[in-house]
Each structure stands twice: as C-alpha cells, then as structure tokens.
Design a protein that fits this description.
24% strand; alpha+beta; 4 helices; six-stranded antiparallel sheet; 121 residues; Yope Regulator, Chain: A
Length: 121
C-alpha cells in the first residue's frame, strides 16, 4: 500500500511545514522528508519513520514509545512513529534527530558542456 498524499501533507504540517524548511519529496511511491536539504525521515505505508539517532531514541524512550522497524522490506531499522498528534513533541524529536545527523555533502558542480560553436573555433 502506497502512502496517501493527504497523510504525507498531514505529517509535513505537524512538523512545521515549509516555513520550518520541511520538504516532502515523492520517492518510489512513498515519501522522503528533508529539512533544508538534510534527509531525516521516510513516510511509507502511511507511517512516519525517523532516521535513528541516540538523541531521538532517548526522547522516545522517555515517552515509552521507542520502536524500531524497517520502513520497507530489506531496509535498515528506523524509529517508527505511531503517535503523530503531538506536533510540539514531533518538532522537538525532529530537531534532535536533525542536530545529530551530519551535514549533507555538497553536490559536485557539473562541468559545463561546450556548445557546438566552441568546438568549431
């Protein structure tokens, strides 16, 4: 079952939306979440999965809600989120996760192709 677009929009809204820099990109019928270019979560089968970090794990353990599961068959274990109603907690958890993750590597600059007219000179 693929994730419904309405569910993905709800998750983004709970995380603060575009004003917080949260972007949701469709990936293979599911969704990837990024904040200012840093990938931090997946939405698969209408379930939110956060990249596991010690900080995120600690926050979830305090609530007694720490559960690991793969977002899709063959995937690494992620932190599976079951309660998405507390937007303030989700935002705190997301920030703790983002702070623990390394900065994304800059994409290499593409070489500019020379035009046909450059080749004939």
């Amino acid at each position: 079952m693929a994730t419904r677009a309405e569910f993905a929009a709800f998750v983004v809204e709970q995380l603060g939306g575009e004003k917080q820099g949260v972007a949701c990109r469709k990936m293979f019928g599911e969704y990837g979440l990024h904040e200012f270019g840093k990938f931090f979560a997946l939405i698969c089968n209408d379930t939110l999965y956060l990249k596991p970090t010690p900080a995120g794990e600690a926050l979830l353990q305090k609530r007694g809600a720490c559960r690991f599961a793969p977002p899709y068959p063959g995937a690494s274990l992620y932190l599976q989120m079951e309660d998405l109603d507390d937007a303030a907690f989700l935002r705190e958890l997301t920030q703790a996760t983002l702070n623990a993750l390394p900065e994304p590597k800059p994409k290499p600059k593409r070489k500019r192709k020379s035009s046909h007219s450059d080749e004939t000179r």
